[in-house]
Amino acid sequence: MTMSLRDMTQAECFSVLEESRFGHLACSKDGQPYVVPIYFAYQNGIAYAFSMPGRKIDSMRENDKVCLQAQRWQAGKSWASVVVEGRYQEFPDTEVWRSERLHAWSLLQKHSDWWEIGALKPHELPVAAKSPHVFYGILLREVTGRTAAAVE
Amino acid sequence: MTMSLRDMTQAECFSVLEESRFGHLACSKDGQPYVVPIYFAYQNGIAYAFSMPGRKIDSMRENDKVCLQAQRWQAGKSWASVVVEGRYQEFPDTEVWRSERLHAWSLLQKHSDWWEIGALKPHELPVAAKSPHVFYGILLREVTGRTAAAVE
């Protein structure tokens, strides 16, 4: 078996992002990249996510250029991989950002496994004012994708 | 269900790397990170891989600081995630690097799906002199890991 590779259209890329719940987020500080798995929900040019404070958040606050990769495994050995370059935008718990924060939460809570990485209990609503969780969005600037299909 | 998170020991991290064949590699150029999935084989402090020339290789040639993340899904909803910071080292097809190049090849060819991303046919041995493929290693500088287990 060998694989046939091709670039994806923009519409195909958005389709993968909309279906994805899990991806890999890379940030970079002083030229040192750092990549971790995240859960996210994508809608209208923004990948919404939240995280406990830590190295990833520190890095993105200092350098807001980030990269998000998501993958779809298809029938057989086929796959589609989408890479987003974007900008980190935090949604702090203030009036200005309240609607974005609530919107992020409403998208993310639809998925039953959203708390697995954050180690939250389901009743600990991280949107609450005293939550230590950082809500943020990756604002899409550019998206590319490649897909591979098995050929005989 | 909630999850209990803890840091992994170095030995646990190496164990995940040795068992992994698939991961996510991040590089960074001019402060813009870039992350893509790769196949690799880890042994004694080096993650071996190969790739067609392209953006990833161009970026790592310019800035050799890279990050590799690998994940193991365990029983139930448990997982272990390992993050390697390291240095990109190319293994060009020259006398000096021949043994590293052959070693990389011998490790990588053990796995039947190594050619899926590279879109190679199995008989196209990329170790050959005229191959356009770039062999490289990620030389481990630091490794950390976190693991999550479901608790009632």
Top keywords for this entry?
homodimer, 152 residues, alpha+beta, Pnp Oxidase, Chain A, eight-stranded antiparallel β-sheet, 4 helices
**Gap between N and C termini of chain A, in Å?**
6 Å
Which CATH-level-2 architecture of chain A? Roll
Oligomer: homodimer
Q: Uncertain segments of chain A of ≥5 residues (pLDDT<50)?
A: 114-119
Alpha-carbon Rg of chain A, integer: 16 Å
CATH class of chain A: Mainly Beta
CATH fourth-tier homologous superfamily of chain A: Electron Transport, Fmn-binding Protein, Chain A
Strand content of chain A is over 45%
What would you say this structure looks like, in words?
- 2 copies of one chain form a homodimer.
- The first copy, chain A, is an alpha+beta fold.
- Chain A has 4 helices and 8 strands; from the N terminus they run βαββββαββααβ.
- Chain A has one domain: Pnp Oxidase, Chain A (Roll), CATH 2.30.110.
- In chain A, strands 1, 2, 3, 4, 5, 6, 7 and 8 form an 8-stranded antiparallel beta sheet that branches.
- In chain A, strand 4 and strand 5 form a beta hairpin.
- The interface between A and B is large, with 37 and 37 residues.
